[in-house]
């Protein structure tokens, strides 16, 4: 996967070849790492029960810069760019391998539990607020005039 590659073109080719081959490796480095991850995730959604092994490393890139003034030496810049390899396979892979992810057999259950967790987190603890003397449903908004008079009172009290 390269920076200028279109995800649509990459996926159409990979999805067309995948049933015959049975595995695919998505590789991206530098700015295209995110695009490679996106392609792998879309493919995992398209084909259920895929096994995955992910490897992350760095690629050393040397850039040579020629000076505009002929008396100066050539400048060499060495950079380490992040690189990712994602292997997706229909066949079971070694589960002891570092970076292994098995197929998600509980896809619907995980979504349901996530919804339950998020709904519990979004509830306002009304009883706790009431015990503190704060009513969470009725919030009093101060007008601009009352805010202005409060700031004037604070400034005069600090001046005294």
UniProtKB/TrEMBL annotation:
The UniProt regions of compositional bias labelled Polar residues, in chain numbering, are 151-160
Q: What is its main location?
A: nucleus
One GO BP annotation is: tRNA 5'-leader removal
Q: Where in the cell is it found?
A: Nucleus
Q: Which InterPro entries match?
A: Alba-like_dom_sf, Alba-like_NAB, DNA/RNA-bd_Alba-like
Judging by the UniProt lineage, the source's domain of life is Eukaryota
GO cellular component terms given for this protein: nucleus; ribonuclease MRP complex
Provide the DNA/RNA-binding protein Alba-like domain boundaries. 1-58
What this protein is called in its record is: DNA/RNA-binding protein Alba-like domain-containing protein
